[in-house]
Specification:
Length: about 190
């Protein structure tokens, strides 16, 4: 949440390749910048995992990546759902000018927190291919990694698509409530 507020105005707070790809697919982010953003995201994740590994060596050395706690299918479905939910929230607060933009970091941070609380024990709640790829590269542990690359990308694409589908207009809220409110229409009768 703090990172969204601190660098959102500089980079759009793109820490997640799945979100970056979903924004590009929805034409809310330029495709020509996608490779550089994803490279930086993966490099940042790898450097972070490497730093943790350097700090905690010996018997404290732990794999900081994500592994399925149950079956691959369970983790795949859970990662899809939580990334869908995350991207739906991000689409609402970051791309819709009718939302309260100042609360974007709080909404996204709270969504990540809830996703981790509920899905963490099942899949590790990655929601981010770079977050899983960096530790896998550092520790050379690639078991189930495909889940954490494919599922968040598909979930983010679906979340952005569904939000854009239900958004139905780019009109300001005051214009929508004039015509779309059943209460206002009833008052006119």
């Amino acid at each position: 949440m703090v990172l969204v507020y601190s660098v959102g105005h500089i980079s759009g707070a793109h820490f997640n390749p799945a979100v970056t790809l979903a924004f590009a697919t929805c034409k809310r982010f330029p495709w020509k910048q996608v490779p550089a953003y994803i490279a930086c995201q993966v490099i940042g994740s790898t450097l972070a995992a490497g730093t943790i590994r350097l700090i905690f060596q010996g018997h404290q050395d732990q794999f900081t990546g994500t592994l399925p706690a149950g079956s691959n299918l369970q983790s795949f479905v859970v990662e899809f759902i939580i990334t869908f939910y995350l991207m739906f929230i991000i689409s609402g607060v970051a791309t819709d000018n009718r939302a309260i933009g100042e609360l974007a970091g709080l909404a996204v941070g709270s969504t990540v927190l809830l996703n981790v609380m509920f899905a963490g024990p099942i899949s590790g709640a990655s929601m981010n291919p770079a977050r899983s790829l960096g530790p896998a590269i550092v520790s050379h542990q690639y078991k189930g990694l495909w889940i954490y690359i494919v599922s968040p990308i598909l979930g983010a694409q679906a979340g952005a698509w569904v939000y854009n589908l239900i958004r139905y207009t780019d009109k300001p809220l005051r214009e929508i409530t004039k015509s779309a409110s059943f209460l206002r229409n009833k008052e006119r009768c």
